[in-house]
TrEMBL record:
Name of the featured protein: Lipoprotein
PROSITE patterns named in the record: PROKAR_LIPOPROTEIN
Entry superkingdom: Bacteria
Amino acid sequence: MIRKISRILCTVIMVLMLVGCKNAKQKLQEYVTTYNSVAANFKAEDVTLTTARGYINDDKIELRFETNLEQNAVNKVKAESSFPKLLKEMINKDQIPKELVEEGIQFDAYFLADDNTVFVKQIINKESLAELLK
């Protein structure tokens, strides 16, 4: 009798674990949906809008940070120093989850001028994560 109950409990636990576990692609979709739903509340210096777009087949998430900065040399230098700090802060606050990066999801983050040209592009993956967090 105890043996039957143990088997049933083990089976139920295994089923619950399988149902409860999400693969990286499902987590990617959830992250993008959640990120975009709270993006209006995002606050960072010079950032006017941020959005996320998921690419399931490529295991990639694109983060765009639109700014009110004009595309010029002075603002480019400013962006090159402030953007990595912003990304590091977001990782530390789990706004960019390390878990997703460790599961093989790559983040392509773009810091954009007011005309949507790119100031800085930062790729966050397993290899670059440690360097970014220094």
